[in-house]
């Protein structure tokens, strides 16, 4: 096989244009899919959610294939993030868009570096390309590390695998929970704070099980009206569910808000505890006060070590929700 026939298939990766009102994000996804794998066919009525899912799955398969495809997949994925972020940020408003433009200018530079490397590798044999890629690996890593806001640190390697940032978050959460609620480093964590690693890659972590619904009615029916803390429990559950609903509603590549991320895991566990603690009692008891004190300390640690820093996309943040819950626990203990 000649070197020319084994060249890297760049397709039309350099021709994507930003979504417009007459060119929705679905059309962009179809274009990117065709660029990565021309054999893929998509239904005309495919939803944006299904197209994005197909896009990530296709990119993952391309990245796991022969070495010459990996940088192509990286460029396609970065372009998908870039253009879909633009569409969603324009919907959020000019204030966020200005911040987006500042950060995305450096991400464009990262894309340009990768495309320049691909152009340099064009026409090389597979063996020659592999050696060239090894020699240039440092450039790729440096370019990724230079992404604004440490985007590479916050980007998931796979849809169901935590990013490095999320992994650090859940480790901090688990540590705080063990020390303040369980008061043991060996006792098992509650189900919704439990993670699991891939057998072949212990550093790749994900949520161990699906999280429960976020609809407030799912949780409110679990609190009996006979509970002396009926009103307090319902208020706390409504607060958490309202924040989760709003957070997922504004989900975009810049804000994150994955339904299985550490934020969602912590909130699922807190709602489970609220129901378990307040639904079982007919009168305040010592065990409840001990639990309230433990959770007050747990929430305080999460706030003090800034596990969930203030967000840039809403006035209601995870930090404000945790602070409100901590203050509410203090009021019950008073």
Protein architecture, described:
- With 334 residues, this protein is mainly alpha-helical.
- The chain has helices at residues 25-36, 48-63, 70-92, 94-121, 126-145, 151-154, 164-182, 216-220, 230-249, 262-279, 286-304, 318-333, and strands spanning 195-198, 201-207.
- A two-stranded antiparallel sheet has the order 1-2.
- The longest helix is centred in the first third of the chain and has 28 residues, at 94-121.
- The radius of gyration is 24 Å and the shape is elongated.
- The chain starts with 24 loop residues before the first helix and ends with a helix.
Shape, please?
Answer: elongated
Query: How many separate helices?
Result: 12
Estimated structural class = mainly alpha
Major sheet: size, sense and barrel closure?
2 strands, antiparallel
Mind telling me the C-alpha Rg? 24 Å
- Series of H and E elements: HHHHHHHEEHHHHH
- Tell me the helix content: 55-70%
Please report the total strand number as a whole number: 2
CA(first)-CA(last) distance: 79 Å
Strand order of the largest sheet: 1-2
Q: What is the chains' assembly state?
A: single chain
Low-confidence stretches: 1-22, 125-149
What is the overall pLDDT average?
A: 74
Residue share in β-strands: under 5%
Topology readout:
Layout: H1 25-36, H2 48-63, H3 70-92, H4 94-121, H5 126-145, H6 151-154, H7 164-182, E1 195-198, E2 201-207, H8 216-220, H9 230-249, H10 262-279, H11 286-304, H12 318-333
Antiparallel strand pairs: 1-2
Helix pairs in contact: 1-2, 1-3, 2-3, 3-4, 4-5, 7-11, 9-10, 9-12, 11-12
């Amino acid at each position: 096989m000649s070197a020319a026939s084994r060249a890297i298939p760049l397709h039309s990766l350099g021709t994507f244009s930003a979504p417009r009102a007459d060119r929705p994000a679905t059309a962009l996804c179809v274009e990117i899919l065709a660029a990565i794998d021309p054999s893929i066919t998509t239904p005309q009525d495919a939803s944006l959610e299904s197209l994005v899912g197909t896009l990530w799955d296709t990119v993952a398969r391309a990245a796991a294939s022969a070495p010459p495809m990996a940088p192509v997949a990286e460029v396609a994925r970065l372009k998908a993030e870039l253009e879909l972020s633009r569409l969603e940020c324009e919907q959020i408003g000019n204030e966020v868009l200005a911040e987006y433009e500042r950060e995305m200018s450096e991400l464009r530079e990262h894309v340009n570096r990768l495309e320049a490397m691909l152009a340099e590798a064009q026409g090389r044999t597979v063996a020659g390309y592999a050696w060239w890629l090894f020699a240039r690996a440092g450039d790729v890593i440096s370019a990724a590390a230079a992404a604004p806001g440490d985007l590479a640190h916050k980007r998931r390697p796979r849809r169901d695998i935590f990013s490095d940032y999320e992994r650090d978050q859940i480790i901090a959460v688990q540590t705080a929970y063990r020390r303040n609620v369980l008061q043991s480093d060996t006792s098992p964590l509650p189900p919704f704070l439990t993670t699991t690693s891939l057998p072949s890659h212990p550093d790749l972590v994900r949520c161990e099980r699906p999280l429960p619904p976020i609809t407030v009615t799912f949780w409110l029916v679990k609190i009996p009206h006979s509970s002396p803390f009926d009103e307090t429990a319902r208020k706390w559950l409504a607060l958490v569910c309202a924040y989760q609903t709003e957070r997922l509603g504004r989900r975009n590549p810049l804000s994150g808000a994955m339904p299985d991320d550490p934020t969602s895991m912590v909130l699922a566990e807190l709602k489970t505890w609220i129901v378990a603690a307040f639904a079982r009692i007919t009168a305040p008891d010592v065990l409840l006060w001990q639990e309230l004190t433990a959770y007050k300390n747990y929430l305080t640690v999460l706030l003090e070590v800034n596990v969930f820093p203030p967000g840039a996309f809403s006035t209601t943040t995870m930090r404000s929700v945790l602070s409100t819950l901590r203050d509410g626990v203090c009021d019950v203990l008073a």
